[in-house]
Specification:
alpha+beta, two-stranded antiparallel sheet, 4 strands, about 35% helix, elongated, binds zinc ion
Length: about 90
């Protein structure tokens, strides 16, 4: 196992650590509502990105029940089968 040849002095250690600091995030005004947001990020207050509404904020999106969507094609398929059966007879 490699072992440090010399002890690192307090000064040398602390000089190295001067670069360990947090950077302030750069904020940009939102194109829609003008609030300060992080750049290249969907606005959390209005849901806009690149001047377009991308997500709905604050409102719960009503989802159409999956059952209704599935039923309609099934009925058509049954009717088609019935009509096909009648034609053959
Ligand atoms: Zn916004």
């Amino acid at each position: 196992m490699a072992v440090p040849f010399h002890r690192t002095s307090k000064t040398r250690r602390d000089k190295r650590r001067t670069h360990f600091k947090l950077k302030v995030t750069s904020l940009v005004a939102c194109s829609n509502c003008g609030k300060l947001i992080r750049s290249h990020t969907v606005c959390p207050s209005c849901g806009f990105y690149a001047k377009k509404s991308v997500i709905q904020v604050g409102e719960t999106v009503k989802e159409t029940p999956a059952k209704e969507v599935e039923k309609k094609p099934a009925k058509k398929a049954k009717k088609a089968k019935e009509t096909a059966g009648e034609k053959k007879e």
